Amino acid sequence: MNVIELIDKYYPEDNALKRLLLKHSRDVANKALEIVRRHPELGADAQFVHDAAMLHDIGICMTDAPGIHCHGTDPYILHGIDGGKMLRGEGYPDFARVCERHTGTGITIEQIRSRNLPMPEADYSPETIEEQIVCYADKFFSKSHPDRVRTVAQTAKSLEKFGEESLHRFNKWAAMFE
Q1: Which residues have a Cβ under 8 Å from the Cβ of 57 and sit 6 or more positions away?
Q2: What is the average pLDDT across 93-121?
Q3: What is the DSSP secondary structure assignment for residue 65, as one 8-state letter?
């Protein structure tokens, strides 16, 4: 599978959204691969991590987030679910799982219910080491500020608003991956 060809299928035009998606995805992929290289003891599949990082946000084109050039109809929180549907339709269920599980530090059924989130009730927590690495790497790069790279401390601070569980998961990953 060529990830760029797959991205091109859903983003055929060279426009601001595609350029933003590619920059963000490459930044996440580079950070994720750096983690894989530094931690061979984790046994992560480097090629899978690269490809998953490149595809983790493929669903943003389906969402309504004009500040980052997205003019779809779904709420932005569904971009992972949308990407998962796209990749399952292409025959890539393992990459679909990464899409679905990278939002925040993962989203639990309890969080969906307590926050009344507009998404199907399921556990979207990263499980495999590859899912965790991509999710973690993604937290350092914002599509709203594509030229910034957050530090671990800045990233942790940005996750405080999502509750203690999200912050705890991120801090556990930081201890494991840094």
Answers
A1: 21, 24, 25, 79, 83, 99, 102, 143
A2: 96
A3: E
Find all residues with CB under 8 Å of 8, minimum gap 6, and list them. Answer: none
Smallest CA-to-CA distance from 134 within 66, 6, 64, 47 is with 47
Q: What are phi and psi of 105, to 5 degrees?
A: -110, 25
In this model, does residue 162 exceed pLDDT 90?
no
Residue 30, CA distances (Å) to 10, 33, 34, 36 in order: 22, 5, 6, 10
**pLDDT greater than 90 at residue 115:** yes
Which of 34, 81, 74, 76 is closest to 53 using CA atoms? Answer: 34
Structure tokens at 16: 């601001």
- As to burial, measured by CB atoms within 10 angstroms (0-12 exposed, 13-18 middle, 19+ buried), residue 51 is buried
For residues 22 and 55, what is the distance between their CA atoms, to the nearest angstrom?
9
pLDDT of residue 63: 98
Q: Give mean pLDDT, residues 31-57.
A: 98
Instruction: For residues 32-60, give the mean pLDDT.
Output: 98
- Contact at 8 Å (CB) between 21 and 7? yes
